[in-house]
């Protein structure tokens, strides 16, 4: 995987070639080439879709809630297991 700066530099170089071509590309061809260029750049990054991100956030929230409930239960059991002091 390229470093972010190297990836952005490569992307910039390719985009410059598209913009500065001797013969200007038709808009639809330019858009298609730019889309291919961006998809290639994004595929080199460790990205996830918004849907996957939201799904994992929901899983994390449920896991966190279960952990907090278990921590409270453990604390309750520890308190119940302690012998009471007699002063």
Task: Label the overall shape.
Answer: rod-shaped
Number-wise, the strands total 0
Work out the radius of gyration. 27 Å
Oligomeric grouping of the chains: single chain
How many structural units, i.e. domains?
A: 2
Which regions contain 5 or more consecutive residues with pLDDT less than 50? Answer: none
Q: Strand-residue fraction?
A: under 5%
Q: Average pLDDT across residues? A: 84
Distinct helical segment count: 3
Could you walk me through the main structural features you see in this protein, from its secondary elements to its overall organization?
This protein is mainly α and 87 residues long. Helices cover 75% and strands 0% of the residues. It contains 3 helices and no strands.
What is the strand and helix layout of this fold?
Elements: H1 4-19, H2 27-43, H3 50-81
Helix pairs in contact: 1-2
Short description:
With 87 residues, the chain is mainly alpha-helical. It has helices spanning 4-19, 27-43, 50-81.
Keywords, separated by commas or semicolons:
87 residues; mainly alpha; 0% strand; rod-shaped
């Amino acid at each position: 995987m390229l470093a972010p700066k190297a990836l952005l530099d490569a992307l910039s170089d390719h985009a410059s070639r598209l913009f500065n071509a001797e013969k200007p590309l038709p808009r639809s061809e330019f858009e298609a080439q730019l889309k291919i260029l961006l998809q290639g750049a994004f595929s080199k990054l460790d990205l996830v879709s918004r849907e996957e991100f939201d799904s994992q956030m929901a899983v994390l929230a449920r896991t966190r809630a279960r952990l907090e409930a278990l921590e409270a239960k453990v604390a309750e059991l520890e308190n119940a297991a302690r012998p009471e002091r007699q002063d």
